[in-house]
Amino acid sequence: xxxxxxxxxxxxxxxxxxxxxxxxxxxxxxxxxxxxxxxxxxxxxxxxxxxxxxxxxxxxxxxxxxxxxxxxxxxxxxxxxxxxxxxxxxxxxxxxxxxxxxxxxxxxxxxxxxxxxxxxxxxxxxxxxxxxxxxxxxxxxxxxxxxxxxxxxxxxxxxxxxxxxxxxxxxxxxxxxx
Length: 178
What we know:
The protein has helices at residues 18-29, 36-42, 60-71, 101-110, 115-126, 129-137, 151-171; strands at 7-11, 32-35, 46-50, 55-58, 76-79, 93-98, 143-147. By secondary structure, it is α/β, with parallel strands linked by helices.
C-alpha cells in the first residue's frame, strides 16, 4: 500500500521526551499521535500488569494486529520505547531520542520510578540499547539520533522533524502545506 503520509517512530528510554515531542509535532504536522502504551491498555493488547515495574506487559503481536490497518496508509507518530517490532514497510523514519544520565535520572525520579526500574532505564540509555535496536532493525538512512536534554533541544528536534515531514510530502506527492 502506498502511503499518503509518513509514519514516524519516536523512540527512546522512558523520560527522554517522546510524548512531549509527539504532542508538539501533532499540532504542527497534522500527523496523529499513536501512544502504544495507551493502545495496549485500551485495546487489550497486553498480558496483564507487572506490579514490580508498574507497567503493562505488552503483547507485541496483538499490538501489531490492532494497529496494522490504521497505520499502513500513514500519518502517524508512533510513541513507544521500542521500534524493532514494527515492520520496515510501515516506517519512514525512526527518531531515537537520547538524554544525558543526570537529566534522565531527574526526570525518572520526578515520576517516582522505583529504584530497579530507574536503574534499568538509566542502564539502557547509557548502553545505547534502543539506538542499537533501531540501527539493527532499520536501514541507516531511516534512523536519526536526537538529544533531548532541555527545551532548546526539544524545539530543535521538532523543527528538524517538521522539515523532514515537509520534504517527505514533496518527495511523495503529498501536500507540503498540510
